[in-house]
Fold each of these.
Amino acid sequence: MAYQGNLKYFILTNEEKNPLLQIMNINQSIDVRKLNRKEYQNMPSYVLLNAKLGIDGIFPDIIEKPVLLLSRTAMEVVGLYDSNIPFLFFVLFDTDKKECASYFCPVLEEEDCLARKPGPGQRELILDRSKMTGIPLFRIRTGTESAVVIRMDLAESLLERGAIGLNLKEVSLTGSSMLR
């Protein structure tokens, strides 16, 4: 069913100003290709990852790369908007600083709603509203890469709760909308 609302959508990325957390051993710990709705049940029930915080580093509420990770608060907010989304449990350890944090990895639906693929050197995505299902958080493929897309109401709810570490870039939508 085509999405019929008028809400805006955004590409979700990490805030660039924050000292980024580095996750060290993700490829040795899990096969990230299996983080999809068909294969996630074959993943371990929890994943331990080494991380480096850096001098002024923090554990943000949202980590977008190398996989989407959410703090407990952010995960609970996402669960309010999509009760069917499965989550995997991750623990990040910085052994040098002797700090750790738990995260939840949402197993996102992948929507095929690109109106057209960006050309060489272009970064802007244009989504086709008529191909969207209206889910609040999903992944789109842009060739060999992917992007996480978040609906405006969910993004606002995260920001109202003081979520840190997220950056939002509005995406253009084409296609018709039933609500005007």
Amino acid sequence: MDAPDSPGSHGPPGSSSSPDTDGMLAEQLLRLTRRLHRIQTRQLEPIDITPAQFRLLRTVASYDAAPRMADLARRLDVVPRAVTTLVDALEASGRVRRAADPDSRRVVRVEITDEGRATLRSLRSARRAAAEEILAPLTTDQREVLGGLLSALVDGMPERRC
């Protein structure tokens, strides 16, 4: 077995993979991500919303009270200007509205509208259809294994510090 710092050691203790295998896995993950993005974009098109707008709308809906723009930027790990652009588009379509903060005139909060809630219901169906399309070649057992592997990758990721 390779020593922890030896060139042939990649990944957690007890694992053995080569740079070729790691490179191939990385490429496959990138290809899968691109394919998933294309399928999701196609599913979202009839609803007239982008994946980024969908993500923001989902995030706004996840709060108990209307979040501040700064809260959304932090949660989405984007610059505040990106949130402003997304909120502008969602507000123009009637899916969210800006609201003044009762405690501070300088703070803007974002509220989801009834139209936004209806859009989320449609989007959840589109997302399920995209997942079904991507996962169609897998058996139930394979899907469970994949879920466990993806959880291990996601849960094992260090937190980003900005």
Amino acid sequence: MTTPDRLTGPQIAFLLLLAFDTVLLGVLELFFLPLRLGVLPLPVTVLVGAVTTPWLVSATAKLVRPSLSWVPLVVWVLVVFGFGMLGPGGDLVLIQDWRALLLLGASALPGAMVLGGGLGRAAGRKPGRG
């Protein structure tokens, strides 16, 4: 069974919804990254990103198409870097310490690993592949 070349209406709606969710999650993860409990840094958004980014990639592969599972990861990276560096009023929202690196690594790395699995499955389904 081959996938059609064009996306259906529900597939486009799911892709747009997942991309919008990715934008919201990326912005919220940036805003709550400097959260502290007294003097102790409490980067709970790192955990949120570590769970939601791979989930969005796999949801896109299941609901839309495995070959488009890169969309949430790319949107998340663009939001985090774009909004983090050029935040509201020109402020730097992406804090410059270990929490920013932890957010990038804990969210983008698992998302990329899920992406690699989804694209590998999509490549394996093409006609003529072993």
